[in-house]
Amino acid sequence: MSGTSIAITVDDRDIAAGLQRLVDAGADLLPAMEAIGAALLFTTQRRFEAKAGPDGQAWAPFAPSTLKRMPERRKPPQLLRDSSRLYQSLTYQAGPESAEIGTNVVYAAIHQFGGDIVMPERQGSATFVTVRQGAGKAKDGRRVGSKLRFARASTRAKSRETKTFTVPTHTVSIPARPYLGVSEADKVEILAILSDHLAAAGGEVRP
């Protein structure tokens, strides 16, 4: 998989023993790896719906400041599924010796592990128009406060005014919301898959 690479190795004695029994039975491991990859993809997708990691721990919620500035088009807010690009990019690859699940989305790692992103200084601009009434309302019903309103840059209003501003360098902290990994339930499913393929190969199935 191109792009960001995240490697999580499953070092489990029972799984390793199951794979060895398949090898000893002369079975082709590729079908088993295909089934394992598909099973892990399914459970990874379910984590996006449960909003929890492989250990069952709920993901960190949106910060109040994030919710406050979130536009209406992004509501109701969906953790890691704002555009569903990350979710839809999840895929698996299987080979004769391994099964991998991952994504080629470049920002996948920062959401899996968390971290800080330094945002460089940038210039911006905003267009305003002047309206007849203020934005606030006094107790007696009078409209008070600023009469400036945000407007589209393409507006042709006579009161149009464009102001430039500088956004200074700042750091954005992203909490870890792990979605990749192998849970205890995944291990049970992997062992069941290996057992089924071993039985099909005529090998000895152990409890």
Question: Which class do the helix and strand fractions yield?
Answer: alpha+beta
Count of strand segments: 9
* Strand neighbour order, sheet with most strands: 7-4-8
How many DSSP H or I helices?
A: 6
* Helix-strand pattern: HHHHEEHEEEEEEEH
Which outline best applies? elongated
How is this fold's topology laid out?
Elements: H1 13-24, H2 29-50, H3 64-69, H4 85-89, E1 91-94, E2 99-102, H5 108-113, E3 115-119, E4 122-130, E5 136-137, E6 143-144, E7 148-151, E8 161-167, E9 170-174, H6 184-200
Antiparallel strand pairs: 1-2, 3-9, 4-7, 4-8, 5-6
Helix pairs in contact: 1-6, 2-6
Features:
alpha+beta, disordered N terminus, 6 helices, 207 residues
Describe this structure in words.
By secondary structure, the protein is of the alpha+beta class. Helices cover 33% and strands 20% of the residues. The protein has 6 helices and 9 strands; from the N terminus they run ααααββαβββββββα. The strands form 4 sheets. The chain has a 3-stranded antiparallel beta sheet with strand order 7-4-8, with no helix packed on it. A two-stranded antiparallel ribbon has the order 1-2. A two-stranded antiparallel sheet has the order 3-9. Helix 1 (13-24) packs parallel to helix 6 and helix 2 (29-50) runs antiparallel to helix 6. The longest helix is centred in the N-terminal third of the chain and has 22 residues, at 29-50.
Report a brief summary of the structure.
This protein is α+β, with helices and mostly antiparallel strands and 207 residues long.
